[in-house]
Design a protein that fits this description.
The chain is globular. Strands 10-9-8-11-12-13-16-17 form an 8-stranded mixed beta sheet, with helices on both faces. It contains 16 helices and 17 strands. It has a domain of about 190 residues: 3-Layer(aba) Sandwich (Rossmann fold), CATH 3.40.50. α5 crosses α15. By secondary structure, the chain is α/β, with parallel strands linked by helices.
Length: about 575
């Protein structure tokens, strides 16, 4: 087993005292390494369901060293899939670069059943294209699933359930399922939906060209791309719906960063490990191989926006960037519609945004962010790096130099063994902020008081299910939008480790008047390019899901989830 300072599944936050987080980290690793996860697949699981199970395997195999798949069909085959695996054994073999290795014997087994009807598992997964079912008793898979987005979402929740069972007494946050949880990806109410009853505003074969721009191709972006391809690629999905989607899709990926094979794979379920090269180029190359229309731009959003042939974006842009300047650049694109995603720990949100329609635009959530100098002061205290240097590191593309990391080590903010891993990493790696990770605080300690001083003993566990769940929600919203099915109105907030799943609400536009959506010039340009939005478009003000009494609870104030 790797030592706690080397294992990519964990990150230490706060103090580094002997017997503190070091001991906690070793306990967490021992629990994970002593666990075997048995994945049971029903014999009648169709292709879409099997791909959803494969996604679960790619996530859980990054966390525990022993994963066994029991396929009741007997042949162990896998349909065409994003990871290009022909069988369960082949999939686990392809995941070797990101799988942990241990010499500890297995002391516990947790079984997860997909469509298993016998009471032999600890966690059961059911559902279909839009329905999400998680239970502690047998549940069935829906017949005829085409893309299985609901099953992918349920699989993400099942990963958290495994971690809760293994790590709850060590401080892993979450709620263990008791009985069953049923929800759906149409309106996120705590009930199931019936496909034939879903209203359709226009026929599948008749929609216009669907221009999708992925502005940022990180852990969320790569997940969304992989899931969109799963639903629309003629090589991965033989349905008539997929054929119509593929014929209409035009994907653009914008990202100047490169894949880091040492850091990315552990929260990037779409990756198998070892990937290098520009993120946008590599993802587009894969889409082209899968028969989809796509193009890559290895640059930042601002440069891409400036060099486009025409202003605006007559389609949907996907924003998963998490910096203040990056979100401003996304808003300045003036896309007809924007679908934003934000992640903090195991919490996330996905939100449709237009411009100057009374609801939050792509930048409204960031207007009240602290001024750069104040923010830099906080970061300086947390990292031990002087404010002038922090300001430089806050610029897009800036990375930590060896001298920066040495100052943080001298200040006692990070342990010396992490030096090499942090050199050339972004400043965010030094800041106590979990992204697609679950923060674990040892129970019984005064975590709140310690956190205020920056000295809490916290272990952050990689949670690839968060990125995949966010990607599932994005892909589901895009497919619903293209097929004319009801899209979320306008935002859903959820915690992948919590139950029930989602809270739907409609955040209003910034009320201070300082957001760029109050700009008269931008408003005129937006209406000149797109006109007034029809009632059936995303971001509609009428017929809101929050106006129905039977919907999920609604919040009217600020989001309980950290933005970005």
């Amino acid at each position: 087993m790797n030592s706690w300072v080397e294992d990519p599944r964990l990150r230490l936050l706060g103090s580094q005292t002997v017997g503190g987080p070091q001991e906690s980290a070793i306990q967490v690793l021992h629990r994970l390494d002593e666990t075997e996860v048995c994945v049971a697949v029903a014999a009648d699981a169709n292709d879409a369901a099997r791909v959803a199970v494969a996604a679960f395997v790619t996530m859980i195999a990054r966390l525990v060293p022993r994963v066994v798949v029991v396929d009741s069909s007997g042949d162990g085959r896998l349909p065409n899939n994003w990871w290009q695996a022909a069988s369960w054994a082949d999939l686990l073999h392809r995941l070797t670069p990101v799988r942990p290795v241990t010499d500890l014997p297995a002391t516990r087994q947790i079984s997860v059943g997909f469509g298993v009807v016998q009471p032999v598992c600890d966690v059961y997964v059911g559902g279909g294209d839009w329905n999400v079912v998680l239970a502690d008793y047998p549940v069935v898979l829906e017949i005829g699933a085409i893309h299985g987005f609901g099953l992918h979402a349920a699989g993400c929740l099942a990963v958290s359930q495994v971690l809760i069972k293994v790590l709850a007494d060590l401080g892993f946050p979450g709620v263990e399922v008791s009985g069953s949880v049923e929800t759906n990806l149409i309106d996120h109410r705590l009930c199931l939906v019936d496909d034939p009853d879903l209203p359709v505003t226009h026929p599948t074969a008749g929609f216009d060209v669907a221009r999708i721009g992925f502005l940022g191709v990180g852990s969320v972006g790569t997940s969304a791309v992989a899931l969109l391809a799963t639903a629309s690629s003629p090589m991965l999905n033989g349905s008539a719906v997929a054929g119509a989607l593929a014929a209409a899709l035009e994907v653009t990926a914008v990202d100047k960063d490169v894949f880091d094979p040492d850091r990315n794979p552990y929260r990037y379920p779409a990756l198998l490990g070892g990937e290098t090269g520009k993120k946008s180029t590599e993802m587009v190359k894969r889409l082209l191989q899968l028969g989809l229309t796509a193009e890559a731009h290895d640059t930042d959003v601002s440069t891409w926006n400036t060099n486009k042939k025409e202003p605006g974006w007559h389609g949907v842009v996907i924003s998963s960037v998490d910096t203040l300047s990056g979100r401003l650049d996304v808003a300045d694109v003036l896309s007809k519609a924007t679908l934003s995603a934000g992640v903090s720990g195991t919490e996330l949100h996905v939100q449709w945004e237009r411009f100057a329609d009374g609801f939050a635009c792509p930048f409204c959530d960031f207007v009240r962010a602290e001024p750069p100098l104040t923010q830099a002061g906080v970061y300086s205290q947390v990292t031990g790096i002087p404010i002038p240097r922090v300001l430089a590191l806050l610029q897009d593309g800036a990375v930590l130099e060896a001298s920066d990391v040495d100052m943080a080590i001298t200040a006692g903010r990070v342990p010396a063994p992490r030096r090499d891993a942090l050199v050339s990493a972004p400043l965010s790696d030094l800041i106590r902020q979990a992204y697609a990770e679950a923060e674990m605080r040892p129970q019984g300690g005064d975590a709140g008081a310690d956190a205020a001083s920056g000295d809490s003993d916290v272990v952050a566990v990689a949670s690839p299910q968060v990125s995949w769940f966010a990607g599932t929600l994005i892909a589901a919203e895009l497919v619903k939008h293209m097929l004319g099915l009801p899209t979320v109105d306008r935002r859903v907030d959820l915690d992948v480790a919590g139950l029930p799943a989602g809270i739907v609400r409609r955040p209003h536009a910034d009320s201070t008047g300082t957001c760029i959506c109050h700009s008269g010039v931008r408003r005129r340009w937006y209406r000149r390019m797109y006109g007034d939005p029809p009632a059936t478009e995303v971001g509609r003000a009428a017929d809101s899901s929050v106006d129905r009494a039977d919907n999920s609870p609604v919040l009217s104030g600020a989001s309980p989830i950290l933005e970005g």
